[in-house]
Specification:
Blueprint lengths: L2 H23 L4 E5 L4 E4 L1 H6 L11 H4 L8 H11 L3 E6 L5 E11 L4 E11 L1 H43 L9 H24 L12 E4 H11 L1 H7 L2 E6 L3 E4 L1 H17 L8 E9 L2 E7 L7 H4 L19 H11 L3 E6 L5 E8 L4
Parallel strand pairs: 7-9
Antiparallel strand pairs: 1-2, 1-5, 3-4, 4-5, 6-8, 9-10, 10-12, 11-12
Helix pairs in contact: 5-6, 5-7, 5-9, 7-9, 9-11
């Protein structure tokens, strides 16, 4: 062996040592699979996560696919090898865990051919659980406030009318009448103040409420996809985007709730024999940031459209749900000075357009 060959060998050994060091120390479950679907290498976290052993190296993935608890992993790898394009998706394994799976093609530079794939798995189960819990709490919070305000306003109106009637009725003890009326009116004023404070607190900044911030709509859509990951997987829903404007100033949790409810409804109200197809687009129009969510669902009749944003109204009465989602969407948007437009025909899907005011500086 001459000196040049010796240097090349040393360089190769050093490179291999660096690669081995990386694989040994990374905290991410990672697999290296060749073009023949043979498992060539995996990281220690992958060994722990998928119960892999040293003897699995050199085996065909078909023989150990049950370890990964994700039935379509072979098909996904095949797509990346055949197209040489990166595949990113959220997957749920059979043990009910969620992962962000990234399959990257391993391309040989000398002939530009895909010689295998590198697969990484990031556990996003806690994040999905947190997002779902946030959506539940937001819905409960908004519904509680509106229900309290609604239930108290009617008695207040009745009490006010009663007071007006009492003012016109002669009393047997006129000296007590002014005192009693003063007490009743004071109580009425206190009740009104409580209701007004309760309603206003939904939109005025409070310590427990997040302030408006400049939000990237792509990030909101990513959160919504994660929160609805189970529904998307079960229905095979396809969500596409066309974002001509990507940033808007708004309260993050409220914007997420708006998008969440619109996409959740688009999936829920799609015929069972049809794959939900949803397009989320955005742009600016006449001083508004416009978010459009269109679907290929069952559509909404003109009669239903007149009351669809009211509390406890549902497109289909036999469908699961509380009928609060669109009511909350409308309440959030109109409370921020925006508006919602709906274009829908039965059987032909729906298009919801959310208009949020753009504040110019």
């Amino acid at each position: 062996m001459n000196k040049q060959e010796s240097r090349q060998l040393d360089a190769l050994l050093e490179l291999n040592e660096e690669l081995e060091n990386y694989f040994s120390n990374t905290i991410i479950p990672q697999l290296f699979v060749d073009a023949n679907l043979i498992l060539r290498k995996f990281t220690p976290p992958a060994m722990k996560q998928f119960n892999l052993k040293d003897e699995h190296i050199g085996m065909h993935l078909e023989d150990i696919k049950e370890n990964f608890r994700f039935p379509t992993i072979l098909d996904n790898i095949g797509v990346v090898i055949s197209t040489s394009k990166i595949l990113q998706k959220e997957i749920q394994t059979t043990d009910m865990h969620w992962y962000q799976m990234n399959i990257l093609p391993y391309i040989r530079r000398k002939d530009n051919k895909t010689d295998g794939v590198i697969i990484t798995f990031v556990d996003i189960t806690p994040r999905i659980r947190d997002l779902k819990e946030q959506e539940r709490l937001i819905a409960e919070h908004e519904l509680l406030l509106d229900t309290i305000a609604h239930d108290i306003k009617n008695p207040i109106l009745a009490l006010g009318l009663t007071i007006e009637m009492l003012k016109r009725v002669p009393q047997q003890e006129p000296e007590m009448y002014p005192v009693l009326m003063e007490n009743v009116e004071r109580s009425l004023g206190n009740i009104k103040k409580v209701v007004n404070d309760l309603v206003d607190s939904r939109w005025k900044p409070q310590r427990h409420q997040a302030a408006e911030e400049l939000i990237d709509l792509e990030n909101i859509l990513e959160d919504v996809r994660l929160a609805l990951a189970h529904q998307i997987t079960e229905s095979n829903a396809v969500i596409r985007t066309n974002l001509k404007s990507g940033e808007v100033k708004f309260v993050r949790r409220k914007l997420r709730s708006v998008i969440y409810n619109l996409i959740a409804n688009a999936i829920k109200y799609c015929p069972i024999e049809r794959t939900p197809e949803i397009l989320v687009s955005s742009g600016e129009q006449d001083g508004y940031f416009v978010i459009s969510v269109s679907d290929n669902g069952i559509g909404i009749t003109p009669e239903a459209q007149r009351s669809i944003f009211e509390k406890f109204e549902r497109v289909k009465q036999d469908n699961n749900g509380s009928g609060v989602g669109l009511y909350l969407v409308n309440t959030i948007v109109t409370g921020a000075g925006g508006k919602i437009e709906l274009d829908s025909k039965p059987g032909a899907g729906s298009v919801f357009k959310v208009y949020l005011p753009v504040l110019r500086t």
